[in-house]
TrEMBL record:
It comes from Fibrobacter succinogenes (strain ATCC 19169 / S85). Binds directly to 23S ribosomal RNA and is necessary for the in vitro assembly process of the 50S ribosomal subunit. It is not involved in the protein synthesizing functions of that subunit. This is Large ribosomal subunit protein bL20. Pfam families: Ribosomal_L20. Keywords: Ribonucleoprotein, Ribosomal protein, RNA-binding, rRNA-binding.
Length: 116
């Protein structure tokens, strides 16, 4: 039985790293040692920022809701408090989308909340 050589698998490993480093600046895209380090750091940042993205979107929804409810003379914090008091179980994503896409329906929600 012929001896197994590692030439093809090692080349594939190198190609995988260099493909992931494509578009990087300087030698990080072509030098294997620098590319390995750069790709590892990029993966760490990507992992952390996938989690940060959830908070970023939540703050965007809160900003949109605050702007939308201030047109009705109420602050965001009062709106959320009265929303829970009125037993309306809509999350911030849905409410922000409603405020942007269908202002008439959002106005009805705000009127119900103000009455509660």
């Amino acid at each position: 039985m012929p001896r197994a050589k590692t030439r093809v698998p090692s080349r594939e490993r190198r190609k995988k790293i260099l493909k992931a480093a494509k578009g990087y600046y300087g030698r990080r895209k072509s030098n294997l040692r620098l590319a390995i380090d750069a790709v590892a750091h990029a993966g760490q940042y990507a992992y952390a920022h996938r989690r940060d993205k959830k908070g970023d979107f939540r703050s965007l929804w809160i900003t949109r809701l605050n702007a939308a409810v201030r047109e009705f003379g109420i602050s965001y914090s009062q709106f959320i408090y009265k929303l829970s008091k009125a037993n309306i179980n809509m999350n911030r994503k849905v409410l922000a989308d409603l405020a942007v896409a269908d202002p008439a329906a959002f106005a009805k929600v705000v009127e119900i909340v103000k009455a509660a």
